[in-house]
Design goal:
With 344 residues, the protein is of the alpha/beta class. It folds into two domains: 37-190, Rossmann fold (3-Layer(aba) Sandwich); 217-343, Rossmann fold (3-Layer(aba) Sandwich), CATH 3.40.50. Helices cover 38% and strands 18% of the residues. The chain has helices at 5-9, 11-14, 25-28, 37-49, 69-74, 86-98, 109-112, 116-124, 152-157, 170-181, 233-248, 265-274, 290-301, 322-328, 333-343; strands at 55-59, 79-81, 102-108, 131-135, 163-165, 187-190, 217-220, 224-229, 253-256, 259-261, 275-285, 306-312. It has a seven-stranded mixed sheet with strand order 2-1-3-4-6-5-10, with helices on both faces. Strands 7-9-8-11-12 form a five-stranded mixed sheet, sandwiched between helices. The longest helix is centred in the C-terminal third of the chain and has 16 residues, at 233-248. The N and C termini lie far apart (57 Å).
């Protein structure tokens, strides 16, 4: 944008644009009435920092992208933009945690890969209470192939000492952050690109009350078939359940996994025991994902239950809209129903 005054005056907006973006787009840009996942995370940390002076927030040249402007303005002494230096940022956060702070790091999933060694050795090995807010987790649409957040689950699940969770709505994201504040161990919370549903209650529930720490949540009761979603795929499983009831006469159980590590093996075992077919769906690579862990557990302990894993296959996903990428990966009610029929 050098030489274009509109771009020079609003570099963050014009950093990534489409081919038909107008020069006055920044001025006419309208925000949705629903906050983004990034805004919910930022708002939750800002609210918590008002009563907990230990909270500090770090970013690596992504203040705008992770929507941390509000925190930066309210708590300038506890906000740190380290520049494009992700490895340093994670070590920096580890140092603050070792000194008694409760640092949160907000970072795109694709950029967290650069700091894998620091997460392993500086945070998890020392069991330091750093919160990693993994933004843009999953498929990212027009941001392109390099920016997909598909690897964080497989490599983080391999690390000891860390808790990994994925909220289906803003209510659970706040629950996870507040739960981390009460604990003294590393935690990662992954959330996708886009707008955050404020509350997705379980079936027949009048209010949104998060399930217990480390526990799965029953969203809808059924029999024979169980659909397990996590994070962004919980809504997909609820839509699939509607379609199964309307078109196939099948009433499936729907479960929100919530915690990717450690898995709620007691709750999962009950699901495997009570159903003949279990389908998992996740917005990350299947290899190393939670679905494979559930399949392994079923194979070793519940061989009569068929487990079907739906997610991102073992290949790079092409540039497209997020909806098109979900279809490419089979993350659709139609594909899930077809997989269930083939398994019978």
């Amino acid at each position: 944008g050098k030489g274009c005054c509109e771009a020079e005056n609003n570099a963050p907006f014009f950093h990534g644009i489409g081919p038909n973006t107008l020069l006055d787009a920044a001025q006419n840009h309208k925000q949705s009435s629903f906050p983004s996942w990034s805004e919910v995370m930022s708002g939750t940390l800002t609210e918590a920092a008002c009563y907990d002076p230990r909270i500090a927030v770090c970013t690596a040249a992504m203040t705008d992208g992770t929507k941390l402007n509000g925190f930066a303005e309210k708590f300038p002494g506890r906000f740190f933009d380290v520049g494009i230096a992700e490895e340093h940022m994670l070590t920096f956060a580890a140092g603050m945690a070792a000194g008694g702070m409760k640092p949160a790091v907000c970072i795109y999933s694709t950029f967290l890969q650069r700091a894998a060694d620091q997460v392993m050795h500086d945070i998890c090995l020392s069991k330091l209470p750093v919160l990693i807010g993994i933004d843009r987790a999953g498929l990212v649409g027009e941001d392109g192939e390099t920016h997909h957040g598909l690897l964080d689950v497989p490599w983080l699940r391999a690390l000891p000492e860390i808790t990994i969770a994925a909220p289906r709505d803003a209510a659970d994201l706040r629950f996870f952050v507040n739960g981390w504040l009460k604990r003294d161990s590393p935690m990662a919370v992954r959330y996708p690109r886009g707008k955050a549903p404020q509350a997705i209650p379980a079936e027949n529930s009048q209010e949104r009350i998060p399930a217990g720490w480390g526990k799965i949540e029953l969203m809808a009761s059924g029999n024979n078939v169980c659909l397990i979603g996590v994070g962004s795929t919980v809504e997909l499983m609820l839509k699939t359940a509607e379609k199964l009831r309307a078109e196939e006469g099948i009433t499936p159980t729907v479960v929100d996994l919530r915690f990717i590590k450690p898995l709620d093996m007691d709750g999962i075992s009950e699901i495997l025991k009570e159903h003949s077919i279990v389908v998992t769906a996740e917005e990350n690579f299947l290899n190393g994902g939670s679905g494979k862990a559930i399949s392994d557990h079923a194979c070793n302990n519940h061989p009569n239950c068929t487990v079907i894993n739906i997610g991102v296959p073992d290949r790079y996903i092409s540039h497209a809209t997020r909806s098109e990428q979900w279809t490419e990966c089979g993350l659709t009610p139609e594909n899930i129903i077809s997989a269930i029929k083939r398994s019978k």
